[in-house]
Amino acid sequence: MDQLPTLQQLEYLESGFEVSKILAQAGFPMDKPAFAITWGQIAEEIAHTLADHGLPPDRLEEDFLIDLAQGVQKVLQNDDVLFWRSSIRTFTTDHPTVTAFITSNLDNDDEGPLTEQYENAIRLGDDEAYWPDGGASADLFDEF
After folding, report:
1. What end-to-end distance do the CA atoms of the chain give, in Å?
2. Which of 79, 110, 120, 135 is 20 to 30 Å from 30 by CA-CA measure?
3. Mind listing the pLDDT tens digit for each residue in 111-123?
């Protein structure tokens, strides 16, 4: 037996027809898309995602970037396009090639010269070597 529509569904249907009629009379084509994403916007979002992970596009092969854009196109056909930016970022970040670059960058523990100097100083037990002035600016009550 077919299920009868609920009152809310009937209200949605009626108000949908009414709004569609008004918009059509105002010149909005009901059969045309109201929302479009350009390839430029997709390229920009891919580039931002790569830049956020420290991956300049010139380090990547052109075929990879083309493959990435085609994958994004498939994702946008299947996902909710209102969240297209996060869909692109997720697809780009989860791509195996990008993941390989990201994990190799995480293994590179280069936090800067001051951090490295501090880590070396505390390993040796010589905290004063961390200070550029030999510890003169350190707290007088430090007990090292």
Report:
1. 84
2. 79
3. 655 566 666 666 6
Q: How far apart are CA 78 and CA 90, in angstroms?
A: 14
Give the three-state DSSP class for 111.
coil
Residue type, 8: Q
Residue for token pair 């995480």? 106
pLDDT tens sequence across 48-102 = 888 888 888 888 888 989 999 999 989 888 867 778 888 888 888 888 888 887 7
Distance (Å, whole) CA 139 – CA 144: 11
Cα distances (angstroms) measured from residue 43 to each of 104, 134, 136 = 24, 50, 52
Going by C-alpha positions, the residue among 111, 129, 110 that lies closest to residue 120 is: 129
Strands (E), 1-144: none
In terms of Cα–Cα distance, which of 46, 34, 44 is closest to 82? 34
Q: How far apart are CA 42 and CA 92, in angstroms?
A: 11
What Rg do the C-alpha atoms of the chain give, in angstroms? 28
Dig out the tokens for 19 from the structure: 């709004």
